[in-house]
């Protein structure tokens, strides 16, 4: 299985696994996480449990508990994996784009595309959890720690908005932080609509169907036009 999960272990990008024992432990950890993603995709949050994972990969529950203390911790890691993939997709989408107008639109479209790539994983990323999470940040910590993938993704959007204000593209009085939150909430709604009821939200008044890319372009354009500088109206 090609999975993004191998990229998000907190230390995986900062240090090399030096010993055979460390490498074996990391391999087992990734096997468990990949199984968690499969089970979540097939059975949802309620179907995911340590015992169910043990059955999936033919491990004992006690063996899995050596790597993850709880279901909460597993879901916390799935959350971070989604945002890790989102950051990579945003980086690919924006490239060296100099226009803040296009930059912000590309961020919004990358978010929805990422959600639609793995809808069940996207749902996992926004599934409420409770209890302590030892190794993987919970949803509140994800936004507070500036180095987490979700915070990096949010910062991309904020930076694009600030650059747009500086360039005179967006309103000079724009609260970039709140604008980014508003855009993120809108993207979340668009993603959920296209995942759950695409036929409804992709149908024009005359009954013809829009493509996903047409919907994304139209929606992103509407979001950005709502914050544009009236003195520099985009054609």
Describe the structure.
- The protein is an all-alpha fold and 235 residues long.
- Helix content is 66%, strand content 0%.
- It contains eleven helices and no strands.
- It has helices at 20-47, 50-57, 61-65, 71-94, 100-117, 119-125, 139-144, 149-167, 176-196, 198-201, 212-225.
- Helix 4 crosses helix 6, helix 5 (100-117) runs antiparallel to helix 8 and helix 5 packs across helix 11.
- The longest helix is centred in the first third of the chain and has 28 residues, at 20-47.
- The chain is globular, with a radius of gyration of 20 Å.
- The termini are far apart.
- The model is unreliable at 1-14 and 131-142 (pLDDT under 50).
Offer a quick outline of the entry.
The protein has 235 residues and is an all-alpha fold. The protein is 66% helix and 0% strand. It is globular and about 65 Å long.
Using brief descriptors, characterize the structure shown.
single chain; 235 residues; 11 helices; globular; disordered N terminus
């Amino acid at each position: 299985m090609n999975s993004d999960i191998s990229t998000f272990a907190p230390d995986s990008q900062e240090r090399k696994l030096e010993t055979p024992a460390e490498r074996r432990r990391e391999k087992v950890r990734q096997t468990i996480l990949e199984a968690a993603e499969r089970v979540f995709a097939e059975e949802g949050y309620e179907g995911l449990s340590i015992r169910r994972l043990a059955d999936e990969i033919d491990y004992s529950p006690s063996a899995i508990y050596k790597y993850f203390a709880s279901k909460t911790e597993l879901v916390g890691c799935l959350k971070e994996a989604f945002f890790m993939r989102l950051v990579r997709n945003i980086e690919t989408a924006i490239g060296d784009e100099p226009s803040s107008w296009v930059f912000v639109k590309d961020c919004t479209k990358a978010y929805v595309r990422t959600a639609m790539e793995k809808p069940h994983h996207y749902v996992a990323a926004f599934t409420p959890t409770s209890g302590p999470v030892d190794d993987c940040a919970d949803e509140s910590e994800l936004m507070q720690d500036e180095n987490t993938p979700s915070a990096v993704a949010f910062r991309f959007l904020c930076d694009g908005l600030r650059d747009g204000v500086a360039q005179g593209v967006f309103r000079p009085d724009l609260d970039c932080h709140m604008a980014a939150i508003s855009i993120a909430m809108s993207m979340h709604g668009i993603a959920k609509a296209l995942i759950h009821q695409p036929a409804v939200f992709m149908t024009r008044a005359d009954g013809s169907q829009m493509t996903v890319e047409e919907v994304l372009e139209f929606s992103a354009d509407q979001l950005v036009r709502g914050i544009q500088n009236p003195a520099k109206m985009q054609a």
